[in-house]
Each structure stands twice: as structure tokens, then as C-alpha cells.
Amino acid sequence: MIKLKRNDKIGLFFFVAFVISSSLIWLFEERFTKEQWRTNPSQRYQMVDDLIESQILIGKTKGKVILLLGEPYSSSTIEKDIFIYRLGDQPSFFKSRREHLLIIFVNQKVDKVTLALE
Known about the structure:
- This protein is α+β, with helices and mostly antiparallel strands and 118 residues long.
- It has 2 domains: 1-30; 31-117, Beta-lactamase Inhibitory Protein, Chain:B, domain 1, CATH 3.30.1450.
- It has helices at residues 6-28, 34-39, 48-54, 62-69; strands spanning 74-77, 81-86, 99-106, 109-117.
- It has a 4-stranded antiparallel sheet, with no helix packed on it.
């Protein structure tokens, strides 16, 4: 049997804790689906990280974005075209921050997808 030193035990403990917590976060993180996005607008905040990280919208036209996400809450035509989608309120002990999904179009295609506070 291998005998571990105290520092090795501490390091092993933190490594195992990191692996378990990362696995649980990944397991319980809500994945983006078109159906969930459209039917549960108040729960969109749970899917937005997956939507942004997967970059599924990059390069899509406005029409394809609307087919996927539905009509935007607001759109802007200042210098760039921007679609804004409400995400719902995250549960919080403090005053909740309202976040919106911003989809920025350049040359009629999605260039950037980001979050913005209200």
C-alpha cells in the first residue's frame, strides 16, 4: 500500500473535489434547445451560457435566428443591427439583475452574441 504524505493528501482531496464539482455543474447545466427557449422564456437564463459557448448563432442570418429563437424582444438599427432577447429573472437573495441576450449582426449575419445588464 502506498503511503501518502500530508501535502499529497491535501492536494488529492482538492483535485477530487474539483473533479466532482465540475462534473456536477456540467451535469445540471441546462442545454439550449429550441423548444425550451420558446416555451419557457422565464427560464432562458439557464440556457444562455450553452447558447453563447456553443456559438450556434455565429454566421446565421436574421431569418434563421428568428426561426431558432423566435421574435426578439427588441431590435435596434443604430450603426449595427442588434436583436435583444429577455432571459427571465435568476433566483437571488439580493435584488436580481436583469440580463438580456444581445445578438449583433454585421453584414446581415451574426457577428457576436453576448450578455448585457438592463
